[in-house]
Each structure stands twice: as C-alpha cells, then as structure tokens.
Amino acid sequence: MNDVMLQLDGLVRYFDNVHAVDEISFSVDRGKVLGFIGPNGAGKTTTMRILATLETPQRGDARIGGYSVVDEPAKVRQITGFMPDSAGVYAHTTVTEYLDFFARAYNLRGTARHQAVDNIIEFMGIGELRDRNVESLSKGLKQRVALGRALVHDPQVLILDEPAANLDPRARIEFRALIRELAADGKTILLSSHILTELAEMCDAIAVIEKGRILATGAVTEILAGMRPRRTLSARFAGATDGLERFLLEQPGVVNVHEAGGRMRFELEGDDDAQAALVGRLIAAGYRVLEFSAHGAGLEDLFIEITQGRVQ
Amino acid sequence: MTWHHRLFAGLERASDWLSPIVVKEVRQLTSGREFHYSFSISLLLGLCVAFLGAASALDASGTSGSWTFGALIGCLAFFGLVVVPMGAFNALRTERLEQTLELIILTTLSPRRVVIGKLLAQGVKLATLFAGLSPFIAMSFLLGGIDFVTILVSMLLLFSWSLWACAASLFLSSLIKTRAISGLIFGGLGVLLFLGVVAFGVPRVLFFMMMRSGGAFSSSGFHFTFFGGSAPWWLLVMLTTFCLISMMNLVLLTENRLSVATGNRVTALRIGFAVQFLVLVGWMLSFAGEPPPIRTSAAWTLGVLGGLHLAAVAMFTVTEDLVLPRRVLIRMREWSALRQMVAILSPGGGRGALYVLAQMAILLAAVGILRPTTPGFSWFVAICGYVCFFTGVPVAAFRLFRPAHEAAFHLRVVTLVALPVAMLLPDILYYMLWRPDEFTVSFAARHLISPRALAQWSVVQSRYGIAFPVALGLIGVAAYSIVVGAGMRMIEEAEIEAGEAAAPAREPGSADVY
C-alpha cells in the first residue's frame, strides 16, 4: 500500500525577485527517511520552514499526513516535529523541565505529560541528564535533547534541519542510530545535512536541490544507476598477473582497464550477475583473486555531479 | 509520603491548568539569581523603612505612617516600574535571541498566549514582591496618618501600572531582533524607567494620596473642570480604563510582532484599537448633557486625543501591504456573511484606509453630539483632513505604481518623516529663498501645509480662511480612495491566482534525474 506521509506539489516561494523555492515536488512514504541535499542558499531551509508552517508558499501546497500546510497549519503542527539548525535551549532549566514545558505546550496533561517526558528521556538515553541544566550540556547532548523536544508530542513526521551539524564522530554515530530507530518505529523523516556520507547511510532516498529546484530524487543507488550505467571495480591478485589486462579487456562489458597501486581497476557495464560471472571467469582462468570490490560513486561525487551548473 | 510531597504533587496537578509559559518562567525565576537578589533587597529596604517609621512613631505624633507608606511605595515603585519590566524585556529578548520563540509558536500555544503568559509571569513576580512588603505596609497603617482605602488604591494603582510597564517592555522587546541593538535598548530602557520612576512614578502615587487626603486639586492645565466634585475618582476610573485598554493593545501589538507573517496578524489589533477609540469617544460623550463649557472641553480633549490616535492608527494601517498571505486569503474566503460585513477589520492597506475613515466618521459624529462652541466643527474636520493627507498621499503615490510591492516598513518611515518635514521645510525654504532680515517662526501662510495649523486654528480661520486646509483634506481623502481601490484590485487578482493555483500541479514524486 502506498502510504504517502509527506507530499509536496509545485511549491513556490520567492522573496522579492529571488526564487528560494521553485516548483518543488516530491513525496515521502511512511517510515522512510529522505535526505535533503543542496549547497548553502539552495532552498532547503525555506522548504523545511514551509513544511513546518512557518512560511507559506506563494504557489503550490504541501500535505503532511493528508493535511495542507497552507489550509490546516494547526493540524500539521500536531503531527509534525520540527528541529531547526539551532538547538534552542533555556537558561536555568533542567532537561526534565525543558521537555515538560514543551509537553505542556502541546497540551499534554497530568499522567500523559509525565509519561511522554519519561518515554523521551528513556528513548534518547539521557536519563542521567534529567536534572542537569540544558544550557550546560555539550552541543551533542543539546542536539539530543532538542530532538527529544521535537518528539515529545509523538509526531508522525519529523523535519530536521542540519541535525548532525557540529556533532563529534561519536555523537554522529549515535544520532544516526536514533534516526534509523525512529524510522523503524514508523516515523517519516525529512532531514538536511552537509555531511553527505552520513546521509547515504541514514536515508532511504535523497532529494538534491539547487537554486530552489529539485535536480534529482530517489534512492542513491537508483540515481547512480540512472547517471552511470557502468560500475567501477578493482581487484587485487596474488602471484603473476601476466596477460591479465588483455584478459579483462576481452571480457564482455569490461572497459578502461588500468593498473594503479598494485590493483587492477576497470569498469564493467552490467548488473550484479555480470559482476559475479566475471569473478568466476577470472578464477577459472587461474588468476588468484585476493580482493574484489566495487567502487560506487559516493554521495559526494553524486552531489557534485548533479549540482554543477545544471540549473541556471 | 510526607505532607510536603503531597502538597507538591497537588501543586503539580494544579499546574496543568496554568499557562505553560507561566510555569516555565516561574521555574526559571526560582532557579535564577536575579529574582532572589531583588526580593532580598526589597525585604531589606522594607525592614529599614519600617524600623525608621517605628522609631519616628516614638514622638507620638501619630502621622509617621504616612511617610513610612510613601517610602515603602517608593521602594515598590522602583521594583515594579524598573526591575520587573526590565526582566520582562529580557525574558522576551532571550527567547528571540536563542531562537526558542518559533519552537513555542509551533506548539499549540498561540503568540497571544505566549505574550499573556509572559505578562502573567511578571504578575507573579510583582505579586511576590508586593506580598513580601505587605507586612511593612500594614505596619505603616498601624503607625497612623494614612487610611486603609488610600493604601489599597495606591497599591492597586501601582500594581496595574507596573503590569502596564511590563507589557510596554514586552512590546519594546518584540521590536528588535538583533543582539546589539536589543542590548542598547535594554540599557536605554533601564535608564528611562529609572528616570520615569524618579520623575513621575512616585509623585503620581503620592498625588493620588494627596487628593484622597483632601489636598489641593488644581483644575488648571488639564481640563479637570468637567469632573466636578468626584474628580479624583473620575480621574482614577479614566486612568485605570486607559491602563487596561492600552495594556490590552500592547499585548496585541506584541502578538502582532511575534506572529509568523503567514497568518492574520491584524484583525485583533484593529479591534483592540477600535475599542480604545470607542472608549475615548464614550468618555467624552458622557459629558454631552453638561453645560457648553464642559461640552467644549470634552470635545477639545476628544479632538486632541482622538486626532493623535487616528494619526498613529492611520500610519500603521493605511501603509499595510496590499498583497495578503495565502493563508489569510483562504481564511477570509471562509468567513461568514456577518464577518464579511466587518471587512474593514481584516488585513490589507485598502481595508486599513476604510477602517481609519470609519473612525473619523465616528469622531465627527461625536463632536456633532457634543456641539462645542470653540473651536468650531471645522477644526475637527481639519484634523481628519490633515491625517488623511499626511498618511494617504505618500502611500497612494507609491501604490499607484507598485501596488504589489512589500513596502509597509518603508512607507511607515516615509509617513513618519513627512510630518517633521512639513513642519520644518516651509521655514527652511522661506529663509533660503527670501532671505529675510529677521528670524521668526510665528505662524504665517507658509505654515498652512504643516499640522501646526491645527494648533493655530483661530488664526487660520480669521486670517487665511479654510480653503487651503479643505483642499489638503480633499486630496487626502482622494489618496485614501486610491489606496482602497488598489487594495480591492489586489485582492481580486489574488483570488484569481489562488483559483489557478488550486488546479493540480504535476504528479507528486515525479521529479527525475536531470
């Protein structure tokens, strides 16, 4: 069943004559994580602010859980958790008080409020920080508390603007695990980041935006397959490799063979079966294969390739 | 479970029914140092004053309670009119600088509830300070020389004006977004409030005490004559009404500043200022059955206060942008026929112009009922005409060429600057072009373009006639009609555009790799 939770239809938002968001359309299914990638000023934050109901589009609409961000902002806010790029914390406020305040602000009362705060503290693993002042926490912990704040009313959709910015490697790994856990729990997540390799590991799909326009959407592998029909492979062999280069060039679909750093690098036009067949033929021919690996273009390569001057 | 655990659990349950903002602010208050310091200092000051009062009571004059109370109310005025409003300013300033305000607005709390919550939190602070000093104030009553009603009314007055100062501070805080400028304003506000308390606050409370104790009451200078024998109570009622209504409008203004630009930020404000205007008219109409001198005084007061009100309201409503956010247009389309009838309360510069014209009509009708002897009816018409001219002409000139442009802020600056320019430019041009030997700023024909003409109306009437002011007024009304027309056209265009936008765009998720 196609259960679309987040749907953008031709969103347009301009400030004076600058089109910050220009005819953006894409959708995200329930329980999926979509990474929003684009250079600074591409329109990511404006799009996210429209989805969070903090801005209205001049044209087009977006629906979250079936509710229009233009017509039904109050309903959208009830099912959406928004985390801007700054954590937004208070002085003289403990972690519990901070979460309790937002639970109250979302109209949670009595036992329901206590339960919500306890659940978030447990889920985010910040039990030992309960009575610490939010202001005194490290950036990573503040981000964690801020994510907890966005989750306190149990939203179905999470919109996270640069959530992993300024986090140390350990905090990033923990954050990644949290995002996957939330997606597994059925939350639909839209997140932007400049740490592109992280997005590749966290997201089911990506949307690349530049100058307010979507350049590509879909799973990273799908986009790669659409852009690059060939896969780049490399192999390391034990013993003599005489005639290996000619052998490889004679194989169907193999091109651009060359040696670099003691490895043979080449491109193969074909799918996984073609790759497995090639490995089989190499072994049958008596070559002693030590390593065989595929070098998919990273998200960063993809990003650079997609965004370089495509939109004018 | 001990009794205090049960008590706290009960309070915790009860707090569910309080504003979340109040709960948060009070928690921050009790955890921070600032309030502890101010509360301790207020207690220390109260103790010192009470000790001195008790010492002076030993001479058995029986009147030391009077100055003891004055000194205590002075201390309270300092905390209520300086310290707590500064805290209010800082509370909202921090909320904006730390970018937590948008997070709150995304919850079920509306900007209005946020502002009211902040104001109530200041009310809790004030109540705590007042309660802390109340034993010493009770002692001043026991020392003699002051009656219970004076104490009660003075404290209520001080409390309400302190809350008003907090509302004003919140509004001021909502105006500035940058850290540096808001820091400067914070410092400036501190000085201003301190001087305000020293120069006006304490004397005002003491003034009331003096009136209560049968002291001198001058009728000169402020047209107190129409209050008759119950003047202090009338004054008190009027001041309190003004305090409450203007506090409500300060809350609405702050709400307007804090709301995201996607919603209707105008209607509540227009209702608030219309209420303020109607109350003013109501006050003055209550003198309609009095003898002519009193009716004339009332009409004059209405002309001055109503004119200032209209000028301020016109500067902000007529200059509003004509293009409305989509969310507002959709809401307005859903309005019932009854709400459509009061469309002048909805956003948009065109409707703003109609809103001002409607208030002008009410002002003139009220003056017609009061039938003042001098200045004549023409003075009130001229007030409206000058307001129309100075606020309408710059806006109409701009909107003729750029109706869809977002320029509300710039137009407000232009209308604000137009006033001093009109007051100074005639003299500057006169001295530059004619180079007279003698420097004089006495009223002359060149000043007819300036609102100064309203202050010299009898001279204008007798020496120059009212043709020029009438012409200015007519130009102003014509300018208003241009703004109204442009506003209507923009709404129609937006409706058509919204209809086109409602047609389905392309299939979602259809974006491809380019």
CATH topology of the largest domain in chain A: Rossmann fold
Choose one word for the global shape of chain B: globular
Strand content of chain B: under 5%
Unreliable stretches of chain A: none
What's the N-to-C terminus distance of chain A? 38 Å
Largest sheet of chain B: none
Q: Total number of β-strand segments of chain B? A: 0
The proportion of strand residues of chain A reads 25-35%
Arrangement of strands in the largest sheet of chain A? 6-7-8-3-9-10
By CATH reckoning, the class of the largest domain in chain A would read: Alpha Beta
Q: Structural class of the secondary elements of chain B?
A: mainly alpha
Oligomer: heterodimer
Mean pLDDT reading of chain B: 83
Layout of strands and helices, then pairs:
The complex is a heterodimer of chains A (312) and B (514).
Chain A: E1 4-15, E2 18-29, E3 33-37, H1 44-51, E4 59-64, E5 67-68, H2 73-79, E6 80-83, H3 95-105, H4 110-124, H5 139-151, E7 157-161, H6 169-184, E8 188-192, H7 196-202, E9 205-210, E10 213-218, H8 220-227, E11 230-238, H9 244-250, E12 254-260, E13 263-269, H10 272-284, E14 288-295, H11 299-307
Parallel strand pairs in A: 3-8, 3-9, 6-7, 7-8
Antiparallel strand pairs in A: 1-2, 1-4, 4-5, 9-10, 11-13, 11-14, 12-13
Helix pairs in contact in A: 3-4, 4-5
Chain B: H1 3-14, H2 20-31, H3 34-56, H4 64-97, H5 101-105, H6 111-143, H7 148-175, H8 179-212, H9 231-258, H10 267-285, H11 292-317, H12 326-333, H13 337-341, H14 349-370, H15 377-401, H16 408-433, H17 452-455, H18 457-464, H19 467-502
Helix pairs in contact in B: 2-6, 3-4, 3-6, 4-6, 4-7, 4-8, 6-7, 6-9, 7-8, 7-9, 9-10, 10-11, 10-14, 11-14, 11-15, 14-15, 14-19, 15-16, 15-19
